Amino acid sequence: MTTVIEQTVRPARRWRRALGGILDNPALAIGLGILAVIVFAAVFADWISPFDPLRANPLARYKGVFSGWNLLGTDELGRDILSRLIHGTRYALLVAIVPTVIALGIGGLLGMIAGYIGGFVDTVIMRFFDIMFAFPGILLALGISAALGPGLSSMIIAMVVVTVPAFGRIVRGAVLQVKEEVFIEASHALGFRARRIALRHILPNILGPAIVYGTLQTGRNVILSSSLSFLGLGPQPPAPEWGQMLSSGRTALATAAHVATIPGLAIVVLAVAFNLIGDGARDYLDPRFNKQRD
Q1: pTM (2 decimals)?
Q2: Domain range enclosing 117
Q3: What sections of the protein cross the membrane (predicted)?
């Protein structure tokens, strides 16, 4: 009976400890709060959206903010901006998170191989990353998107290619640092296989930096994806994508600035949320921060 009670209490304590750590970290708490609201909007967009985001009403073009039922006004085709903004959260989260996850998987694997094996393999992989770094990220993404054609899938592929080298370099540096630890040398001395050492001893110790950088990169992906959509290389109209909404509203900045300003602010808020989470996660995963909290 005692064992069962202890097994029940310990997870509860861990959850309370984790929640307390988040609440003690303002940046992490605020970032997670903003992201939770955006995720809620994306999941329940069909229920909380006041209008059909694709329904046009030419007689109601360029309504201002708080114009009757159109709380955020209407765009150049008379579509409700709030409804398009809510449905646009799905595109915003998709193009921010999916490329990060894929790039982390590919770049992390290459970086781990380069850092752990070293030698000729390390040289080849790092020189490949150096070639990729020679091209400005936005120009490389533009070239890839233009070559593949406008669309959501081509934009995601372009963003993955651009961000893989950065993840590879971060993971490689973390692996090189962990390799010098005493417990890794002890594992080699005990005759453990290289795969076991890499997966059970090195990988858990490099997840922290990878997660922090991945979160920060997700914020950058919000800006990058919006830039590609603004230039017409992302999801095509009438998709309610924030970058595309910003692009279509720029022609009416003098007469209806809210059409472009509102999706622009949404892009900034989402990017700031991921940056706050990244900064907060860096402090939360820092042992010194945990020690001070204890």
Answers
A1: 0.87
A2: 95-294
A3: 21-45, 91-116, 128-148, 154-171, 252-277
